[in-house]
Amino acid sequence: MDIKPCNVLEIGCGTGNNSIWLAQNNFDVIGIDTAEIAIQKALEKASKANVKCTFIEINFLENKIEGAPFKFVFDRGCFHIFSSDQERRNFAENVSDHLEKDGLWLSIVGNADELRDHPGPPQRTARDIVNSVEPYFEILSLVSSHFESDRSNTPRAWVCLMRKRSSI
User: Fold this and answer.
1) CATH of 7-164, one of 3.30.450.40, 3.40.50.11290, 3.90.1300.10, 3.40.50.150
2) Where are the beta strands (DSSP E) in 34-151?
3) Strand 70-76 vs strand 7-11: parallel, antiparallel, or unpaired?
4) Dihedral (CA of 135, 139, 145, 148) sign
């Protein structure tokens, strides 16, 4: 499914790489993170790349993000940091609250199908994902993949594309 340029919220934007890429591809981007240093680096990178992105230091779970509702939400490694189904469900509900009707959420999640002998992102099962996003989202695609990285042994990931349920 192609996601056309639109207004997008990136949760946990870090130093801005994904937000900048989205802006370079004509998306109107707001990137948020709780780390002040990450937001400062993101602003510097966006300036050097000569792209327009808004970066905000804010706690997503405690604040409504200005600019909502969004057509698209992206997170690479935020959803999976929560240990319990209830915490992930709260996160999913908050994502839903920030999306317009039929809005899309793309989440890249550490994959528990991988046995590791080295550190990596938190790992979740497909069932963890499904249990947590119901009843807020319809899962359009749940594919096993890998995190994009410059490391030789990249960790496995779930790439999960969801649509906000119209009953929400």
Assistant:
1) 3.40.50.150
2) 54-57, 70-76, 99-110, 137-146
3) parallel
4) negative
**Which residue ranges make up each domain of the chain?**
7-164
| 115: DSSP letter | -
Contact 95, 106 (CB under 8 A): no
**140 touches 107 (CB < 8 A):** no
List of E strands, the chain: 7-11, 28-33, 54-57, 70-76, 99-110, 137-146, 156-164
Tokens of 3: 């996601």
Q: What angle do CA 158, 61, 69 make, to 5 degrees?
A: 80
- From first to last of its 168 residues, what are the pLDDT tens digits of the chain? 789 999 999 999 999 999 999 999 999 999 999 999 999 999 999 999 999 999 999 999 999 999 999 999 999 989 988 989 899 999 999 999 999 999 999 999 988 887 777 777 778 889 999 999 999 999 999 998 878 766 677 888 889 999 999 875
Tokens read off for 156 = 């496995």
- Between CA 103 and CA 130, with CA 32 as vertex, the angle to 5 degrees is 45
Answering whether pTM is above 0.85, one says yes
